C-alpha cells in the first residue's frame, strides 16, 4: 500500500482542516484549486488508485460518491464536477485514490 502526503494529511500531521470526515474518508481543500471550490475526497484506506481497488472496496467506492453528494448539499452547491484521475497515464499525481469535487460556486 502507498504512503503518500494524503496519508500524512489523514493522520493529522499538518493540521489540515477537514470539510468532512467519517470512519471511511475525509474531504479537504485542494492546495492548488482549479475552481472556486475544489475539494478532495480521500478514503482513509490508502488504495493507490481505482486500478488497485478490488471487490472488497465496492462499498467504499460507492460511499465516496455518496459523500460527494452530501458535501454538495452541505456547501449548497447548485452544481459541480467529480473527477478521478487514474494512473500515471490518466494524469494521477498522488497515488492515494481520491475524487476531485470542482465547482464554480
Ligand atoms: P491528482 O493529479 O488527481 O493525483 O491530484 C492530486 C491533487 O492533490 C492536485 O490537485 C494537487 O493540487 C493536490 N495536492 C497536492 N498536495 C496537496 C496538499 N498537501 N494538500 C491539498 N492538496 C494537495
Description:
By secondary structure, the protein is α+β, with helices and mostly antiparallel strands. The chain has a single domain (5-103), classed as HIT-like (HIT family, subunit A, 2-Layer Sandwich). Helix content is 22%, strand content 21%. It has helices at residues 5-10, 58-74, and strands at residues 20-21, 25-29, 37-43, 81-83, 99-103. The protein has a 5-stranded antiparallel β-sheet with strand order 1-2-3-5-4, covered by helices on one side. Strand 1 and strand 2 form a beta hairpin. The protein is globular, with a radius of gyration of 13 Å. It starts with a helix and ends with a strand. Adenosine monophosphate (AMP) binds at residues 5, 30-32, 40, 85, 91-94.
Features:
105 residues; five-stranded antiparallel sheet; 2 helices; alpha+beta; HIT family, subunit A; 21% strand
Short description:
Helix content is 22%, strand content 21%.
Q: What percent of residues adopt helix (DSSP H or I)?
A: 10-25%
Gross morphology is globular
Model regions low in confidence, pLDDT < 50 over at least 5 residues? none
Strand coverage percent: 15-25%
Q: Which ligands are bound?
A: adenosine monophosphate
User: Largest sheet, order of strands side by side?
Assistant: 1-2-3-5-4
Please identify the structural class as seen in this structure: alpha+beta
Q: What number of structural domains do the residues give?
A: 1
Reported CATH architecture: 2-Layer Sandwich
Cα distance spanning the termini:
35 Å
Number of strands: 5
Task: Give helix and strand order, one letter per element, not per position.
Answer: HEEEHEE
Give the count of helical stretches. 2
Mean pLDDT: 97
Which CATH class? Answer: Alpha Beta
Radius of gyration: 13 Å
Q: Largest sheet, if any?
A: 5 strands, antiparallel
